[in-house]
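Saturday, quiet lab. Running sequence design on the structure tokens for the scaffold JK sent over.
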């Protein structure tokens, strides 16, 4: 969660664009020179070096280790499971999971 807090702070306080496209090579969507062979196009978290400096670096190391260049969908899914107590085997921490 500290990495997501870091991303939220940079996005909210410094209007940083936290996400970028990682282009894949799917048929009909491949952009020559941008697509990575064998990958699908996804939104990923930007590299830390692309973000502005802030007053607080809380969560920066976690962002670099776990979020940087990772698919957004995977990270948000992990955060959702964490908020619902899945990591500790407990019930939901904030709100019930809608089926």
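Result came back. Writing it out in full:
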């Amino acid at each position: 969660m500290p990495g997501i807090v870091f991303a939220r702070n940079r996005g909210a306080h410094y209007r940083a664009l936290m996400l970028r496209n990682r282009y894949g090579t799917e048929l009909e969507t491949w952009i020559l020179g941008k697509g990575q062979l064998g990958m699908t196009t996804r939104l990923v978290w930007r590299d830390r070096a692309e973000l502005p400096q802030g007053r607080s670096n809380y969560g920066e190391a976690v962002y670099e280790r776990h979020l940087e260049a990772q698919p957004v969908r995977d990270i948000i899914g992990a955060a959702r499971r964490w908020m619902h107590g899945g990591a500790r085997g407990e019930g939901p921490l904030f709100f019930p999971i809608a089926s």
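Notes for JK: The first strand starts at residue 19 and ends at 22. Residues 2-14 form the longest helix (13 residues). Ask whether to fix the surface positions before the next round.
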